[in-house]
Amino acid sequence: MLSEEKENKLRDLLTAEMVSRVTLAESINIIHNIAIGEVEKNLEEMSDQEKESALEELSKKVEETQQKTEGQKA
Fold first, then answer.
1. Could you say which residues of the chain have pLDDT below 50?
2. Is the dihedral of CA 42, 47, 51, 56 positive or negative?
């Protein structure tokens, strides 16, 4: 049986090895899936008023970003 110190070192080395094999695309996919879960959890906890407010605020941000992007293209 490994000592706690050796088991922790093994855990760290295995984690580092696993992480070193993850590609950028896989990392983005992992983060995206985590974000989807967080959004679902947050939406379940939000009131209808909070949802309306968030939708309005985020829609405004997207519109402003699109306008800036279009302005830079011109």
1. none
2. negative
